[in-house]
Amino acid sequence: MDISFILILALAAGAMFLMTSRTRKQQREAQNFRATLAPGQEVMTGSGMFGTVVDVDDEADVITIESTPGNQSRWLRAAIAKLVEPPVEETEETTADDASEDAAEYGTAGADAGTTTKGDVDDLVVPDDLSGLTDDRSEKDRGRRDDGTDIK
């Protein structure tokens, strides 16, 4: 046999081993997660249904999930895909100190720095294309730089 053929077979076997070891690790983690399910946890099933664990029957490997108040359904433990973390609510509000820090950082001043009023937004006109732009310069200013010299 050729030595290169044996080397290719060894590399293929090594790659297969590495790929299957990663899969086995993920399966072990999922099994540990499912084994520690407890009432009160919010979960998602493999089919995408969200609900709260109400009851865990260890003998039959059945989990009772409540998707809406009063609507309970029974699922096999293996059908639970992942634990759902509740969304984090942002309670941070901008205070006057934060606005003054922003004003100092961006070079604006005044008590209302960083705030916009409805009038500011309504006054802004953005054309859809160049046809809406007009040249308001007079005829004598066209073709001249700011210093008065002609542009060639």
TrEMBL record:
<feature type="compositionally biased region" description="Basic and acidic residues">
    <location>
        <begin position="134"/>
        <end position="152"/>
    </location>
</feature>
<comment type="similarity">
    <text>Belongs to the YajC family.</text>
</comment>
<protein>
    <submittedName>
        <fullName>Preprotein translocase subunit YajC</fullName>
    </submittedName>
</protein>
<dbReference type="GO" id="GO:0005886">
    <property type="term" value="C:plasma membrane"/>
</dbReference>
<keyword id="KW-0653">Protein transport</keyword>
<keyword id="KW-0813">Transport</keyword>
<feature type="compositionally biased region" description="Low complexity">
    <location>
        <begin position="105"/>
        <end position="118"/>
    </location>
</feature>
<dbReference type="GO" id="GO:0015031">
    <property type="term" value="P:protein transport"/>
</dbReference>
<dbReference type="InterPro" id="IPR003849">
    <property type="entry name" value="Preprotein_translocase_YajC"/>
</dbReference>
<keyword id="KW-0811">Translocation</keyword>
<keyword id="KW-0812">Transmembrane</keyword>
<keyword id="KW-1133">Transmembrane helix</keyword>
<feature type="region of interest" description="Disordered">
    <location>
        <begin position="85"/>
        <end position="152"/>
    </location>
</feature>
<feature type="compositionally biased region" description="Acidic residues">
    <location>
        <begin position="87"/>
        <end position="104"/>
    </location>
</feature>
<keyword id="KW-1003">Cell membrane</keyword>
<keyword id="KW-0472">Membrane</keyword>
<dbReference type="Pfam" id="PF02699">
    <property type="entry name" value="YajC"/>
</dbReference>
